Amino acid sequence: MTQTGTTTVKRGMAQMQKGGVIMDVANVEQAKVAEAAGAVAVMALERVPSDIRAAGGVARMSDPAMIEAIMKAVTIPVMAKARIGHTAEARILEAIGVDYIDESEVLTPADDNYHINKADFKVPFVCGCRNLSEALRRIGEGASMLRTKGEPGTGNIIEAVRHMEKVNEQIKHVASADPEQLMTISRDLRAPYDLVKQVHDLGKLPVINFAAGGVSTPADAALMMNLGADGIFVGSGIFKSENPAKFAKAIVTATAHPTDYALIAKVSENLGKPMKGIEMSTLTEDQKMADRGI
Amino acid sequence: MHVIIGVLALQGAVSEHLNMVTACGATPRPIKNPTDLKDLDGLIIPGGESTTIRKLLVREQLLDPLKGLVQNGFPVFGTCAGLVLLAQPESLAGLNGTVVRNGFGRQRESFETELTVAGWSKLFHGIFIRAPYLSEVREPAKALVTLADGRIVAAQQDHVLVTSFHPELTSDTRFHQYFIDQIVTPSLTQAS
């Protein structure tokens, strides 16, 4: 009996991406630069998060023609973003055959009550989370992979650090709890009991969790890997830097060797300017993407 | 006999293979640079993105040492991306065969199925993720698993074992045990 779209092949796809870097690309040329640098996948979107911030307005799924052109240009997996709760955008992305869908707070949410019922798709989904509550709710909806939300398009790592530390701290709490405490924890986290129980038994999340939202240097990537990230998403950090090809390659090396600081020092030399970045306190509440889709 | 099995740890499903090696009673060792290869009895190349792993092998100056090991009869087991690297003449050239990358299509075509392994009485659960296959293998390589449509998804050439699918994503240790018992252990006896 041959089966496609199973939980195992959807989660397994994320397992194959571990220790790698997934790069946001806005066209075929950038996708080729990412592949040549050693990216494990590319995220095809018309504007990287910092440009979405700058442009304002409603950010939607990218033009399918642009995504398909990238799918033809590279042999590594291609991911694309759908708006939170926008089942039709996700079905369109599935129909053109993208390898992974990011139900993403970087785009303008389409539904502020419900996320997409991701279990229903053959194509796997990745979702952002700031804490274990969000993580387990997204897994409950069928997400096969998670990433920290961080604060996209800021080039500032602090939010991704906060989110990764929060998830880790909450996992430790659940893992060390007594069995009779798990239902109360489930109530307090507003997360499904069976997933709380799984985290308790495994001592970790049942899916892969990457870092995202603010990674802009090789050192940022190493920091997140050493905090326990399974891999790295880089949004604006590469193609908003002075030398994208060198930045991309250096971030790949740092992600593969996150404790080899002599090597990371070497690849960080003379990279040129990273993306400019934004200090968190200068963002107004409605400019914070991480608060979307909780 | 105590056996140390390296798992190439540049990218991909590394921890899954390390756990399988432990479950087989051998000692696993993550391999990140050429010095890690010392006193190793066998090597596993995991699933991951073959283009990424290949680029990192070149960057860390591991491609030539590994190719040397493979050419000199060192036991190597590759799954998915590992199969691609072992079968590509421009990579490790360890198996005479023609590899088709992403041979079953994109992620939505990834699948699970039961497999008949040559010489094994029980079926093996195959998990295929954007998997490659071998369109043919040439002597001395032999097919171990061939799908109904003729695509070869597991093969062996002397000390080189490859699968298109991911035994490391199951709890079935038979391929890892076969590698250790039938390929790694005999190579140690020969050497001593």
Automatic annotation (TrEMBL), chain A:
Keywords: Lyase, Pyridoxal phosphate, Schiff base. The keyword Amino-acid biosynthesis does not apply. It is an enzyme of class 4 (lyase). InterPro entries: Aldolase_TIM, PdxS/SNZ, PdxS/SNZ_N, RibuloseP-bd_barrel. Its EC number is 4.3.3.6. Belongs to the PdxS/SNZ family. NCBIfam families: PRK04180.1, pyridoxal 5'-phosphate synthase lyase subunit PdxS. This is Pyridoxal 5'-phosphate synthase subunit PdxS. The gene is pdxS.
From TrEMBL, chain B:
L-glutamine binds at residues 48-50, 101, 129-130. Keywords: Glutamine amidotransferase, Hydrolase, Lyase, Pyridoxal phosphate, Transferase. The keyword Lyase applies. CDD domains: GATase1_PB. The active site is at 80 (nucleophile), 166 (charge relay system), 168 (charge relay system). PROSITE patterns: GATASE_TYPE_1, PDXT_SNO_1, PDXT_SNO_2. It catalyses: aldehydo-D-ribose 5-phosphate + D-glyceraldehyde 3-phosphate + L-glutamine = pyridoxal 5'-phosphate + L-glutamate + phosphate + 3 H2O + H(+); L-glutamine + H2O = L-glutamate + NH4(+). It holds the Pfam family SNO. GO terms for molecular function: glutaminase activity; pyridoxal 5'-phosphate synthase (glutamine hydrolysing) activity; transferase activity. It comes from the Bacteria. GO terms for cellular component: cytosol; glutaminase complex. Pathway: Cofactor biosynthesis; pyridoxal 5'-phosphate biosynthesis. GO terms for biological process: L-glutamine catabolic process; pyridoxal phosphate biosynthetic process; pyridoxine metabolic process. Catalyzes the hydrolysis of glutamine to glutamate and ammonia as part of the biosynthesis of pyridoxal 5'-phosphate. The resulting ammonia molecule is channeled to the active site of PdxS. HAMAP family: PdxT. In the presence of PdxS, forms a dodecamer of heterodimers. Only shows activity in the heterodimer. This is Pyridoxal 5'-phosphate synthase subunit PdxT. It comes from Secundilactobacillus pentosiphilus. The lineage of its organism: Bacteria, Bacillati, Bacillota, Bacilli, Lactobacillales. The gene is pdxT.
